[in-house]
Design brief:
This protein has 14 helices and four strands. The chain is mostly helical. It folds into two domains: about 240 residues, no CATH class; about 120 residues, abc type-2 transporter like fold (3-Layer(aba) Sandwich). It has a four-stranded mixed sheet with strand order 2-1-3-4, covered by helices on one side. Strand 1, helix 3 and strand 2 form a beta-alpha-beta unit. Helix 1 crosses helix 9 and helix 10 runs antiparallel to helix 13. The longest helix is centred in the middle third of the chain and has 31 residues.
């Protein structure tokens, strides 16, 4: 049987070389796509957002606050403007997205025990950038706010500095980050890796999308031999033939952010390798079977595209899965790419194993069963067509 399966593998490799465009598309596209996405997120966090300043106070305090803003790596200076009314024009021309307004008399009012207000204008047309800008602006000005409150309490109530500090900031909040080793706001280790699974799923589907349909006429120069007239031999040979060139691509894509851009990665023994092989094997099996059942590579490709489109939306990378409407949780757990991305996140970030994957493990098992059934049915259809008297 092994020799017969090897014969099918050799036959499929000849077909792949005959149809080089599908081989190149499946193997090169995921690497190029992932490299592009990794480059976009290579800084791991949002940096150097352009900001402008309206300094109406021209005081030592306002200059200190400007220096504090620019010492934060999230911001870079886009210059000074005359008034806040000029900010919308700066945004429209994409020259600045944050404006800090220091009003006239700010330092004088604080010294006179009166409150002062700094305006932070944020362009929220881009919600992701706007959230980063707002959070970092608050972080920059928090020490100034606490210091100002302490000085006012010392002056108004005659409180000693230690008591004034405790009263102005009664609780110290400590935040610890888990499962994000080495970085904060690490988009490279989250969005980039999650996005790569879209290309990986499509690669496994595309590379085998003609393996079944081509048996109904296009492979007249490659007739099936009597030794391959058994469903298991034919199906196993086809799946293994396409799995062999895809696996190195999967491994490279999964390791690329770690190898080339310094994203943290935890590999926990066999669990990583099991998922690495299991996912493409399931997708190739499904793609081959779908191709054979439909007898039409174009229609099978359209079904594969429809299968892939909702995956990223349901993956938890654009919206937290814990916040999904309950009615859509079934969709999330039923999407192969979303399921595997979540499994790999647990394994490579949390140091988990397959035993920790719970619902995702059952979902991938379900897809494997569906793929095997589809492949078996498609194989029977191929053999019926190629047997003497078949249609």
């Amino acid at each position: 049987m092994i020799r017969e399966i090897a014969g099918v593998i050799k036959r499929e490799w000849k077909w792949m070389l005959f149809e080089k465009k599908y081989l190149i598309l499946a193997l090169v596209a995921p690497i190029v796509f992932t490299l592009t996405v990794d480059l976009v997120y290579s800084h791991k966090k949002v940096l150097a957002l352009p900001v402008v300043f309206v300094d109406q106070d021209h005081s030592q305090l306002s200059r200190a606050m400007i220096r504090a803003v620019l010492s934060n790596e999230t911001f870079k200076s886009a210059g000074m403007i005359g008034s806040a009314e000029e900010f919308p024009e700066q945004v429209a021309e994409d020259r600045a997205h944050v404006c800090f307004v220091f009003p006239y008399g700010m330092e004088r009012d604080l010294k006179a025990r009166r409150g002062a207000r700094v305006e932070v204008l944020v362009d929220e047309s881009n919600y992701l950038a706007g959230s980063v800008e707002m959070n970092n602006a608050i972080a920059v000005f928090k020490p100034f706010s606490v210091l100002a409150e302490v000085r006012m309490m010392e002056a108004l109530k005659g409180a000693p500095p230690t008591l004034a500090l405790r009263q102005s900031m009664p609780m110290d909040v400590g935040v610890r980050t888990w499962f994000n080793p080495g970085f904060t706001s690490n988009y490279l280790n989250f969005v980039a890796i999650g996005t790569a699974y879209i290309a990986l799923q499509l690669a496994a589907l595309v590379i085998a999308i003609r393996s079944g349909s081509s048996e109904f006429g296009e492979r007249s120069f490659q007739p099936l031999r009597a030794a391959t007239q058994r469903p298991f031999v034919l199906a196993a040979g086809k799946v293994l033939a396409y799995l062999a060139p895809v696996l190195p691509v999967y491994l490279l894509v999964m390791l690329m952010p770690h190898l080339f851009f310094g994203a943290p990665l935890v590999r926990t023994g066999i669990s990583f390798w099991v998922v690495l092989i299991w996912f493409p094997a399931t997708m190739i099996t499904f793609s081959y079977g779908l191709s054979a059942m439909t007898k039409d590579a174009v229609f099978a490709s359209e079904i594969s595209t429809v299968l892939t489109l909702p995956n990223f939306l349901a993956s938890g990378y654009t919206w937290p899965d814990i916040a999904f409407p309950k009615a859509l949780l079934l969709l999330k757990y039923g999407m192969p790419m979303a399921t595997v991305a979540f499994m790999m996140r647990k394994i490579t970030l949390m140091g988990g194993t397959l035993a920790d994957c719970g619902n995702q493990l059952w979902a991938l098992t379900g897809w494997t069963i569906v793929a095997v059934v589809v492949a078996w049915s498609g194989t029977r259809r191929i053999l019926a067509h190629n047997l003497p008297g078949g249609n």
